[in-house]
């Protein structure tokens, strides 16, 4: 093997110790091994990474033990060629994505002096580097008898490698006669006839679904943060090889040739991948939707919220009379009183201050969701990470749930809050959609109908519609949504279990999911947890407030000084018209 | 190649010395002339491809950084800094033409005046001295540099060692470096009594693994494509030195060398076999000279590769941090000697990268540990010239003592600048280069060291020097920094789109606004048979009238047309004068229709 020769490829080690405090001080230790083939045609200013994860035999993941030998075979081949114009780094990582993250952090920030008590990942330093990394290829091979190659592209937070790189891999694989593609189906399943449209739709939706979680589908996903285009080629084992078996190892030749082709194409690049597509949705192996085509869909969805915000703003009550009308109070003596006061201009002051305070309070709850589970005194509680995170989150959402019952906004406040909610909601969705389209799109599809249906005015709403909206809002709680998604996945995976067990299992899985979301955000920088806590939860609290439409009794409002402690009643019962 | 690099680069090194005073028989006329034109006393130019790997190859005979490197000492009466700047630029331009390299990009924005690190080699102590230094890490060294370099030799590429340098073989090496050194050696009391010395060096490192050989044998013919065809008739000495100890021990030489030289330098002995070309080609019958290195035929040849001993000082340089906003330039110097060594570091940071001096720090760690802690090293010397946007690079020189068995990490934080759009190179996304740093140290021992002493010019001069001055200049890697780069194709697309739209809109608007539209008469006959026949009938009757009317009708029409512009005005002026002359088609058709009705 190439790396065993001293002087050929320098053998380097990178020890990574990871402390994931959220999992209660379980420590993982790993060792990455890498060798750098110094290219003869360059002064070590640029490099390409070829990575293969090493999995212990006891690992729960699929066995990919063939990838390291394949990598070394390629390294041995590459060592004898003099056309390399970029240093080649051959990297074997341990501990799955943790190892890769540690290596990348060590490569880019190896000199950082970390505070060891606070750091979650201690990457150490690397003894050798190869300039700025231009591209990376992660190789996961199950067996040398290959059925098909699955090209995985989704990275952290739904980032994608340049479309050129995906196309490059596709072309070269096709030339070597290897069935490859994005979410390539195994040979057996490939034959059954679906309509093209259905296939494309299915592929598009699966891509969006896997992008929306923001979890990378392979070790390549962590490179994107460092502006290194990367993807994984996952070669899957052939299922029925008893009859087809040729000479052992011969099946690896096309794959090795393909890797060589990819390496040489990357080697020949004069510039980094740029100016092509980083934003695309693949519908077919040779078709994609570009950002110019998919973004208008999201914008059109979100535009509804802005339109509604404008309409609500234009019908905001300007005077007390309008306010009463809007709230549905019409009482004789107040009208008279109003007539008396009519001489002076009856301008109504909107309660900006209290609405602002209310918004801040909801955002504070979201902020606490981010911060509280990581605090030292919480970590000292003898409880598992998953229940701990979940209990903190549930407690905070419970506060959000109770908040509208306790705090009732002054008259006009609800309408103003509604406008603010619609604006914040629209902006948030657009921003999320720009950063991770899939997440923004799914969130918009789920919530836009509800947001459009939401009304705060009392007079023109029937109580059944109102109750449905309230119920829907309750279900739209981020925690509930996570639970429902996990429930659906559990049901799909274990259809044989009774419903009760599935529910229970989904509950534990959802708790784990929230803990893993937190860990991901802390170690890799995944945004999903942050987005849910800091954006979706506050928005939900506001949405819940609006759907409840708690108002102060108008009498309370007028005689506020006399009876400040009157508990607010659901005002829908007091309607007079 | 495992590491027979110790033997091979020396085989490829040609050193020529020509001692004349403006004697254009041996020195090229260009060099003789420029010494008269400019006040340059010492000039070094290096053109290099690849990076010298200190860990495995030791120290080179002639130090060079990847890309192009150039420095010069100026001295003369009434010389000012401004004169030197202009002379330096002119000098670079001259050698850009002489060597076909892009040295013409050397100007004030990438040149510095080193304060401590680069010392003059032969300069009169009295009088003012100026120095300029520049690197062009982007330069790619190729055949086009080799050919003019060979032309500077007195025998050209026809005979002597230069005949070995075939571009096809030279550029398949792992490292090759061409050097040019011009020095003027004057007597202290007599400024006019001078000697011009021109030294040209070629430094090649071969990798035997790239030859796809079945065994580890190699020869001059294998390395250079042909044997040596003799020596340059003008040369006083022409010798090949082959190192015989350490890794050279394993090889058997064919033909057996006649002479052996044993040298001891800095407590380290080296044995060289010498082939003197003057002796080899004494007889007239000799045609081509070839040396073969035969490896022992043992079965596991890979086992007996001894790991080369690590040189005392090694150096690396990295760009750390991610993103296109800021980063850290980090230089790592390792001292594997047991004693403390003095280290000098010179950095040139280009103007498009802002360095912050307050972030400069030297951290240390024991050599065997990877991570740097908080232990710091104090500066012994610090010279800093801040850069100026688009005018001057930042120039930094640091001196410190590095304890034994210790690594030092010198880091400085930088900001990346957003350039103006014309300042980006055509391949903007390739990134911008930061030239290599130079680390200088006084070595404690002569192991792995074979550089020439300052007073020497031939390789054999390095044997006899037993002074304690073992000064090594190490060059680090160059860095590529990707500055924030706008999407250059976007304006192109916008321009294309905008131009198309404007062109599409402009054409019709312009033609409508400026052109005079004259409605012509229908000349072709209608396709309908009835119409055609009726048309013929009426035409025939009208033709006679037209011929009569033409005389008076046409001038009137012409006057009317020149008077009025536009569509509408062309019509009425004509019809009264000549009812059938240039009658508008529409009216004509109307008439016809009426007639048919």
UniProtKB/TrEMBL annotation, chain A:
Pfam families on file: Gaa1
Q: Per the UniProt entry, what are the Gene Ontology biological process annotations, in alphabetical order?
A: attachment of GPI anchor to protein; GPI anchor biosynthetic process; rhabdomere membrane biogenesis
Keywords (A to Z) from UniProt: Membrane, Transmembrane, Transmembrane helix
Task: Spell out the GO cellular component terms annotated for this protein, sorted alphabetically and separated by semicolons.
Answer: GPI-anchor transamidase complex; nuclear membrane
Q: Where are the transmembrane segments?
A: 294-313, 355-374, 386-409, 421-454, 474-494, 527-548
Protein name per Swiss-Prot or TrEMBL: GD16225
Organism for this UniProt entry: Drosophila simulans (Fruit fly)
Automatic annotation (TrEMBL), chain B:
InterPro entries associated with the record: PIG-T
List cellular component terms (GO): GPI-anchor transamidase complex; nuclear membrane; perinuclear endoplasmic reticulum membrane
What are the BP-aspect GO terms? attachment of GPI anchor to protein
Q: Where is the composition biased (Low complexity)?
A: 550-570
Acidic residues bias locations? 585-597
Q: Which residues form a coiled coil?
A: none
Provide the residue span(s) of the region labelled Disordered.
Answer: 541-597
Q: Which residues form the signal peptide?
A: none
What is the protein name given in its UniProt record?
Answer: GD16119
Q: Species lineage, top-down?
A: Eukaryota, Metazoa, Ecdysozoa, Arthropoda, Hexapoda
Query: Which gene name belongs to this protein?
Result: Dsim\GD16119
């Amino acid at each position: 093997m190439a790396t065993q020769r001293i002087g050929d490829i320098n053998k380097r080690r990178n020890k990574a110790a990871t402390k994931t405090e959220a999992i209660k001080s379980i420590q993982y230790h790993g060792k990455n091994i890498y060798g750098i083939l110094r290219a003869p045609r360059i002064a070590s200013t640029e490099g390409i990474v070829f990575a293969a994860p090493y999995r212990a035999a006891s690992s729960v993941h699929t066995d990919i033990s063939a990838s390291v030998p394949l990598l070394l075979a390629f390294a041995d081949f590459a060592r004898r060629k003099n056309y390399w114009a970029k240093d080649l780094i051959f990297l074997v990582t341990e501990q799955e994505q943790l190892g890769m993250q540690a290596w990348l952090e060590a490569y880019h920030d190896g000199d950082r002096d970390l505070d060891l008590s606070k750091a979650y990942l201690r990457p150490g330093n690397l003894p050798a580097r190869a300039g700025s990394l231009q591209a990376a290829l992660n190789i996961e091979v199950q067996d040398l008898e290959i059925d098909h190659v699955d090209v995985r592209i989704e990275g952290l937070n739904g980032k994608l490698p340049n479309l050129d790189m995906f196309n490059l891999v596709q072309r070269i694989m096709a030339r070597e006669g290897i069935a490859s593609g994005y979410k390539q189906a195994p040979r057996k399943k490939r034959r059954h006839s679906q309509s093209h449209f259905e296939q494309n739709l299915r592929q598009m939706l699966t891509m969006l679904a896997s992008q929306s979680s923001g979890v990378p589908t392979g070790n390549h996903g962590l490179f994107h943060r460092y502006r290194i285009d990367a993807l994984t080629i996952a070669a899957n084992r052939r299922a029925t090889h008893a009859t087809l078996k040729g000479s052992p190892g011969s099946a690896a030749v096309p794959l090795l040739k393909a890797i060589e082709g990819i390496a040489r194409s990357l080697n020949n690049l004069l510039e980094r991948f740029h100016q092509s597509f980083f934003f695309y949705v693949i519908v077919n192996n040779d078709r994609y939707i570009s950002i110019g085509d998919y973004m208008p869909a999201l914008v059109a969805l979100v535009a509804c919220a802005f339109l509604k915000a404008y309409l609500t703003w234009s019908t905001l009550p300007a005077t007390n009379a309008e306010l009463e009308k809007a709230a549905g109070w019409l009482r004789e003596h107040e009208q008279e009183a109003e007539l008396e006061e009519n001489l002076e201009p009856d301008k109504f002051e909107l309660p900006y201050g209290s609405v602002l305070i209310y918004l801040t309070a909801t955002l504070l709850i979201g902020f606490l969701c981010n911060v509280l589970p990581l605090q030292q005194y919480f970590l000292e509680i003898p409880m598992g990470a998953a229940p701990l995170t979940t209990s903190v989150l549930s407690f905070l959402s419970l506060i959000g749930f109770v908040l509208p019952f306790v705090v009732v906004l002054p008259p006009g406040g609800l309408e103003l809050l509604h406008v603010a909610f619609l604006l914040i909601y629209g902006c948030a969705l657009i921003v999320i959609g720009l950063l991770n389209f899939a997440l923004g799109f799914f969130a918009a599809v789920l919530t836009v109908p509800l947001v459009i249906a939401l009304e705060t005015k009392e007079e023109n709403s029937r109580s059944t519609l109102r109750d449905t909206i309230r119920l829907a809002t309750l279900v739209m709680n981020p925690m509930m949504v996570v639970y429902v998604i996990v429930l659906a996945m559990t049901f799909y995976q274990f259809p044989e279990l009774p419903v009760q067990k599935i529910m229970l299992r989904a509950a534990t899985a959802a708790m784990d999911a929230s803990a893993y979301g937190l860990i991901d955000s802390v170690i890799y920088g995944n945004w999903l947890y942050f987005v849910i806590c800091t954006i979706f939860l506050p928005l939900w609290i506001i949405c819940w407030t609006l759907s409840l439409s708690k108002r102060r009794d108008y009498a309370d409002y007028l005689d506020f000084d006399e009876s400040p402690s009157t508990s607010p009643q659901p005002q829908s019962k007091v309607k007079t018209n | 190649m495992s590491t027979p690099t110790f033997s091979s680069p020396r085989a490829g090194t040609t050193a020529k010395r020509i001692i004349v005073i403006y004697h254009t028989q041996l020195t090229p006329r260009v060099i003789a002339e420029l010494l008269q034109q400019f006040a340059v006393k010492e000039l070094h130019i290096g053109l290099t491809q690849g990076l010298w790997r200190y860990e495995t190859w030791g120290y080179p005979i002639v130090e060079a950084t990847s890309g192009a490197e150039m420095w010069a000492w100026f001295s003369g009466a009434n010389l000012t800094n401004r004169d030197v700047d202009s002379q330096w630029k002119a000098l670079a331009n001259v050698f850009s033409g002489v060597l076909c390299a892009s040295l013409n990009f050397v100007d004030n924005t990438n040149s510095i005046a080193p304060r401590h690190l680069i010392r003059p080699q032969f300069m009169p102590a009295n009088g003012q001295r100026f120095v300029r230094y520049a690197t062009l890490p982007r330069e790619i060294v190729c055949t086009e540099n080799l050919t003019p370099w060979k032309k500077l030799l007195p025998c050209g590429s026809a005979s002597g060692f230069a005949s070995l340098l075939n571009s096809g073989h030279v550029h398949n090496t792992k490292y090759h470096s061409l050097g040019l050194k011009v020095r003027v050696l004057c007597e202290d009391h007599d400024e006019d009594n001078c000697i011009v010395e021109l030294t040209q060096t070629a430094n090649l490192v071969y990798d035997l693994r790239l030859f796809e050989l079945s065994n580890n044998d190699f020869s001059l013919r294998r390395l250079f494509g042909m044997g040596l065809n003799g020596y340059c008739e003008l040369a006083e000495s022409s010798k090949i030195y082959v190192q015989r100890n350490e890794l050279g021990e394993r090889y058997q030489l064919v033909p057996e060398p006649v002479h052996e030289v044993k040298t001891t330098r800095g407590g380290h002995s080296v044995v060289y076999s010498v082939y003197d070309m003057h002796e080899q080609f004494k007889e007239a019958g000799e045609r081509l000279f070839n040396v073969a290195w035969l490896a022992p035929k043992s079965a596991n040849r890979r086992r007996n590769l001894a790991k080369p001993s690590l040189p005392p000082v090694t150096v690396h340089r990295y760009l750390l941090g991610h993103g296109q906003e800021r980063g850290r330039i980090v230089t790592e110097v390792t001292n594997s000697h047991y004693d403390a060594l003095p280290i000098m570091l010179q950095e040139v940071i280009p103007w498009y990268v802002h360095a912050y001096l307050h972030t400069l720090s030297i951290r240390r760690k024991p050599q065997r540990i990877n991570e740097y802690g908080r232990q710091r090293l104090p500066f012994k010397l610090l010279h800093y010239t801040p850069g100026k946007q688009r005018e001057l690079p930042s120039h930094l020189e640091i001196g410190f003592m590095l304890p034994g068995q210790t690594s030092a990490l010198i880091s400085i934080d930088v900001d990346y600048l957003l350039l103006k759009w014309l300042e980006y190179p055509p391949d903007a996304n390739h990134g911008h280069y930061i030239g290599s740093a130079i680390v200088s140290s006084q070595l404690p021992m002569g192991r792995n060291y074979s550089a020439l002493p300052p007073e020497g010019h031939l390789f054999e001069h390095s044997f006899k020097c037993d002074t304690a001055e073992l000064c090594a200049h190490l060059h680090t890697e160059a860095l590529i920094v990707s500055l924030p780069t706008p999407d250059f194709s976007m304006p192109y697309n916008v321009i294309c789109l905008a131009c198309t739209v404007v062109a599409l809109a402009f054409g019709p608007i312009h033609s409508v606004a400026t052109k005079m539209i004259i409605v012509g008469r229908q000349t072709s006959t209608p396709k309908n048979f009835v119409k055609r026949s009726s048309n013929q009938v009426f035409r025939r009757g009208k033709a006679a009238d037209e011929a009569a009317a033409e005389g008076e009708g046409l001038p009137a029409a012409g006057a009317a047309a020149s008077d009025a512009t536009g569509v509408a005005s062309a019509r009425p002026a004509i019809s009264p004068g000549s009812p059938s002359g240039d009658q508008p088609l529409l009216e004509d058709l109307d008439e016809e229709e009426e007639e048919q009705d």
